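Protocol step 4 of 6: structure prediction from sequence.
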Amino acid sequence: MYGFINLCVKELILTKFGESTWDKVRRKAKVDNSFVSYETYDEDITLRLVKAASQVA
């Protein structure tokens, strides 16, 4: 998956819930805080982000 999708997830969480919630989601998903739009990332990262967001937010 492209980093753009992960950036969208990050921006949604930051906009709706704030920095502290993003930090909780990021830590729970065990992902780094930086994504690059057109770099490819393992699909598992996106799935972990979405799962963590559904549990935290």
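Step 5 (inspection) to follow. Residues 3-56 form one domain.
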